[in-house]
């Protein structure tokens, strides 16, 4: 059967969850499998070239190429699930559903992956473990910069919850991990726009009245840690 949805599966990786999701939903999909590079266990170049993130999972659906597990879950569930596998907001256990839906990749896995990189740092010359995270972060900020160079907000012309969830990492979190945004002028202009939003001003005033939001390009001085 022909279909638009293709799952790019990096073997031994979390893209197995996308295959499983589609099997549970009983929806058609094409499957393309890739092996990790034997020496580094990284994705092969053919995989990396599919999406700037270069990490598994990645799907393609018509003209859309999408990375990031939870985004792919939301996309497939919203577009193809017809209500299957999703608890509606009226359900008494909706809060449990939404919590566990996001917990795995929001907390459990980052914690385990941090432990994995620590192990790599101590087991090897440290080179690999030390390079992977900064490289990924850099491509993340470069992609944000490109997006915000084209649009005022992350999802385009409209301010959305995607902005609400993303700004903390660019502002208050920098008080714990100071880094400069000087090389990202579009992100800096975006933060200026965010800082002018009445709701953001109200929120910061209510929650942290004695805090000057870290909205400028320079790395915050006097880190909290
Ligand atoms: N937060 C990302 C993490 C993606 C990720 O790190 N995937 C791993 C596989 S489990 C990967 O692609 N590793 C190979 C590589 O980095 O080259 C997501 O959930 O999509």
UniProtKB/TrEMBL annotation:
Q: Gene Ontology cellular component? A: cytoplasm
Q: Does the keyword Transferase apply?
A: yes
List the Gene3D superfamilies hit by this protein, alphabetically: 1.20.1050.10, Glutaredoxin
> What InterPro entries does UniProt report for this protein, alphabetically?
Glutathione-S-Trfase_C-like, Glutathione-S-Trfase_C_sf, Glutathione_S-Trfase, Glutathione_S-Trfase_N, GST_C, Thioredoxin-like_sf
Provide the alphabetized UniProt keywords: Transferase
Entry EC number(s): 2.5.1.18
The entry assigns this protein to a family as follows: Belongs to the GST superfamily.
Q: What is this protein called?
A: glutathione transferase
């Amino acid at each position: 059967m022909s279909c638009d949805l293709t799952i790019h599966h990096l073997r031994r990786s979390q893209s197995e969850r996308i295959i499983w999701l589609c099997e549970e939903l009983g929806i058609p999909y094409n499957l393309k499998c890739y092996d990790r590079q034997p020496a580094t266990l990284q994705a092969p170049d053919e995989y990396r070239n599919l999406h700037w993130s270069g990490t598994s999972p990645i799907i393609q659906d018509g003209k859309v190429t999408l990375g990031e597990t939870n985004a792919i879950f939301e996309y497939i569930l919203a577009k193809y699930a017809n209500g299957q596998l999703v608890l509606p907001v009226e359900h008494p256990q909706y809060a449990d559903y939404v919590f566990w839906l996001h917990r795995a990749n929001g907390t459990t896995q980052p914690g385990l992956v941090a432990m994995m990189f620590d192990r790599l740092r101590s087991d090897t010359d440290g080179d690999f473990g030390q390079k992977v995270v900064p490289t990924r972060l850099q491509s993340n900020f470069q992609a944000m910069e490109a997006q915000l160079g084209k649009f005022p907000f992350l999802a385009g012309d409209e301010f959305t919850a995607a902005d609400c969830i993303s700004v903390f990492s660019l502002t208050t979190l920098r008080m714990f991990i100071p880094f400069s945004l000087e090389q990202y002028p579009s992100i800096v202009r975006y933060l200026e726009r965010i800082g002018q939003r009445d709701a953001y001003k109200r929120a910061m005033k209510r929650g942290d009245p004695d805090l000057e939001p870290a909205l400028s390009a320079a790395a915050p001085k006097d880190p909290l840690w």
